[in-house]
TrEMBL record:
This is MmcQ/YjbR family DNA-binding protein. SUPFAM superfamilies: YjbR-like (SSF142906). Pfam families: YjbR (PF04237). The lineage of its organism: Bacteria, Bacillati, Actinomycetota, Actinomycetes, Kitasatosporales. InterPro entries: YjbR, YjbR-like_sf, YjbR/MT2646/Rv2570-like.
Length: 131
């Protein structure tokens, strides 16, 4: 997967998530996706390389960094709770969709129940089985 495909795939997935909104609080170079005002995905370029920055469970984030050379600690974010995804070998549409959905679910789970647009424990649960 190349960089422009990475951004398009991530954005397409994020736009389908209930309550997700795109904002540009840091200028046109940053696309920030939020749910109920909380960030779950950022997209930009770091020296000419398109990247997607996502929230991840700390244990899973470490495992992902070990497994994929195109996943690194979150760029300008808490390195324990965020990852940076770059395009490259082994990065495919399914991985991008899974990471975006997982980031969204982690953020939704921290919202008060009344503000949750979906049940984060069941949303997307059948997604991988259907793939």
């Amino acid at each position: 997967m190349n960089g422009s495909t990475l951004h398009k795939t991530a954005a397409d997935c994020a736009e389908e998530l209930p309550g997700a909104q795109l904002e540009h609080p840091f200028g046109d170079d940053w696309e920030v996706f939020k749910v109920r005002g909380k960030v779950f995905m950022l997209m930009t370029e770091v020296p000419g390389r398109p990247v997607v920055i996502l929230k991840a469970d700390p244990g899973e984030a470490h495992a992902l960094r070990e497994q994929y050379r195109h996943i690194s600690p979150g760029y300008h974010m808490n390195k324990k709770h965020w990852i940076t995804l770059e395009a490259g070998e082994g990065v495919d549409k399914e991985l991008v969709q899974e990471l975006v959905t997982d980031s969204y679910r982690l953020v939704v789970a921290r919202l008060p129940k009344a503000q949750q647009p979906v049940d984060p424990h069941t949303y997307g649960a059948g997604r991988q089985a259907a793939s």
